[in-house]
Design a protein that fits this description.
This is F-box/kelch-repeat protein. This protein is mainly beta and 421 residues long. 10% of the residues lie in helices and 40% in strands. α1 packs across α4.
Length: 421
């Protein structure tokens, strides 16, 4: 059965973060054991159980809220691979953490809201260590005219899992939504490129930009870098490392638009990619990844880090097919097919957790003992059916969990990212 976990002691971004002193000689984690041994035992406990254990005693609460625990879990490679789902505007609807190993859900506090802005979507979310970043997006502003025209956002927020609170960061130099975004490996840097103002309520509209910038986490500062060769929005970004060389890739998206019969706007989708060499910060163009007529646009993209000697594995979900990108030939190759297709008029969520591809869809009814017992609840929120593909073993498995959201989850607009805690 799926567990719904309580959050930490602070559940509001406006509350003061708890002061966490170090564990001293006077505080014992487990009676009869040295604290270093007890600390090692705690480091093997899944993160999804921490919130309940903090209520046991003061020493457990202090240690489980300390930065030392994350460092210890990193050194022993005991990090939990969790999925964070933003169903809608995070200032209105709380995002949730999901642990696929324990089927446990944990709500996060809503992001600080702006009374003049609403309907945030097409933002980027990226995790670095025990922090989660929410950048940009497209939003409606009551101070703009006309009121029904969305505008891009430059806002940046960070959620700290130690303090269990949100912090407002320096805004981006250029407001943008639907853009490429990735955290630079082994560096406290985030790169963003492209984007525009398109909102999820409008199928084909909005501006496009080509600018790119880099965020320095330690300085809380955005610095402009050379922009893309052309306007590009709706694209994805990731890093490729080849030995000591690293590149920031921007793939797919749309640029120019045309109209049908002079009335209906239609996007012109890119079939290529561009890459920035991190040493000289210069862009190079990569040819078309498919021939004309093979497909119209890029599907949902996920990246498996360090899959092949530092090079990532890039996978695309195209309908019910999973394709893998071959960098040597600049072509997409068939990898596998989703065993169980999504129902009519529904969509898949596509994300990587612990080196495995997770294909998520909302199922109204699944024939199993647990779901028959919870059918009354599933009529309200549905249940999530997750199909998991292991690229190394070429095998599929699946799991089922209740959805914690009060409304149906739309994977076309929901934002998802993985985080390791």
């Amino acid at each position: 059965m799926t567990q719904t976990l309580p959050s930490s002691s602070s559940s509001s971004s406006s509350s003061s973060p708890p002061i966490v002193p170090p564990i001293g000689e006077t505080l014992t984690l487990i009676p009869g054991l040295p604290n270093d041994v007890a600390s090692l035992i705690f480091s093997f406990i899944s993160y999804s159980h921490h919130a309940r254990l903090k209520c046991t005693c003061r020493s457990w609460r202090l240690f489980l809220s300390s930065k030392a625990l994350i460092s210890l879990r990193q050194s022993h490679r005991n990090l939990s691979h969790l999925l964070c789902i933003f169903p809608q505007d995070p200032a209105v609807t709380s995002p949730y953490l999901f642990d696929p190993k324990t089927l446990a859900w944990c709500p996060l506090p809503p992001m600080p809201c702006n009374p003049h802005r609403y309907g945030l979507c097409n933002f980027a979310s990226v995790a670095l260590g025990p922090t989660l970043y929410v950048l940009g997006g497209s939003v409606f502003d009551t101070r703009s005219f006309p009121l029904d025209r969305p505008s891009p956002s430059s806002a940046a927020f960070r959620f700290d899992f130690h303090t269990w609170s949100w912090d407002r960061l320096a805004p981006m130099l250029a407001p943008r939504g639907s853009f490429a975004c990735a955290a630079e490996p082994n560096s406290a840097q985030i790169l963003v490129a492209g984007g525009g103002s398109r909102h999820a309520l409008f199928a084909a509209a909005g501006s496009r930009i080509s600018s790119a910038e880099r965020y320095d986490i330690e300085k809380d500062e955005w610095v402009s870098v050379d922009g893309l060769p052309s306007f590009r929005a709706g694209c994805v970004g990731f890093f490729v490392r080849d030995g000591e060389e690293s590149e920031f890739w921007v793939m797919g998206g749309y640029g120019e638009s045309r109209t049908i019969l002079g009335v209906f706007p239609v996007d012109e989708y890119y079939r290529d990619a561009v890459a920035m060499e991190l040493k000289n910060r210069k862009w190079r163009e990569i040819g078309d990844m498919w021939n004309s007529g093979e497909r119209v646009r890029l599907g949902k993209i996920v990246v498996v880090e360090d899959e092949d000697r530092g090079r990532p594995g890039v996978y695309m979900l195209d309908g019910n097919d999973i394709l893998r990108y071959d960098m040597a030939s600049n072509r997409w190759r068939e990898e596998s097919r989703v065993p169980r297709e999504a129902p009519l008029n529904s969509s898949f969520g596509f994300v990587v957790l612990d080196g495995e591809l997770h294909v998520i869809t909302l199922k109204r009814a699944v024939e199993s003992v647990d779901t028959r017992r919870s059918r009354q609840h599933s009529k309200k929120t549905g249940i999530l059916y997750i199909q998991i593909y292991n690229p190394k073993r070429k095998t599929w498995r699946s799991l089922i969990t209740k959805s914690p959201f009060n409304s149906s989850l739309d994977f076309n607009t929901a934002v998802m990212c993985d985080i390791r805690l």
